[in-house]
Specification:
This protein has 179 residues and is an all-beta fold. The protein contains no helices and 14 strands. The protein has one domain. It has a five-stranded antiparallel β-sheet with strand order 1-7-14-13-8, with no helix packed on it. The chain has a five-stranded antiparallel β-sheet with strand order 2-6-5-3-4, with no helix packed on it.
Length: 179
């Protein structure tokens, strides 16, 4: 599994139905954005229409959600991802109860389920015609203390570095902090 955060269902067990909100990205953003990258509302809006701006999240920031789509650029239909320095719009899954698959940055223990961890906010990479999110969950030292992501389970019980986990946003820009 490559990095990134992929919606799978909500915590009630209902399937992910593709509910998203559109956000603007300012031309001044500094990293390549990809589907699967976590973003956060920047606290400003686009001048021409008032649409809220988002940018790639970093460790210890509150999170809005994962990018699930990047709107096409009519002047460059071959654009992959949203390059740094390019304005655009993205579709973000904003449900704070959304359960996602994500990759562990290091070996994860079975008793880390239920703990919280921050993200490793590695920038996306482009290779050939593909753009891949490289964001993962920092599983170096999950703790009960408040952090960005809550570990909800391990896919197939795999605990190796790079294992797929089920996680949800713990510190959201859309609700109160913590569980």
């Amino acid at each position: 599994m490559a990095g990134g955060f992929r919606p799978v269902q909500d915590v009630s067990g209902s399937s992910y139905t593709g509910k998203v909100q559109t956000f603007a990205v300012a031309a001044g953003h500094s990293t390549l954005l990809a589907v699967g990258d976590l973003v956060r509302i920047t606290g400003t809006a686009r001048a021409e229409d008032g649409m809220a701006l988002v940018d790639a999240a970093t460790a210890a920031q509150t999170l809005t959600g994962p990018i699930v789509g990047i709107d096409y650029n009519i002047s460059n239909l071959e654009q992959k991802g949203l390059p740094a320095g390019t304005a655009g719009t993205v579709k973000v899954a904003v449900d704070p109860l959304l359960l996602m698959e994500a990759e562990a940055s290091t070996t994860v223990a079975l008793d880390d389920v239920g703990a919280n961890a921050d993200i490793v906010a590695t920038a996306a990479t482009a290779s050939g015609g593909l753009v891949n999110s490289n964001m993962t969950v920092n599983t170096t030292s999950p703790a009960a203390a408040t952090a960005q992501i809550r570990i909800e389970g391990l896919k197939d019980g795999n605990t190796a570095s790079g294992a797929t986990m089920y996680v949800r946003i713990n510190e959201s820009t859309l609700n109160t902090v913590g569980v």
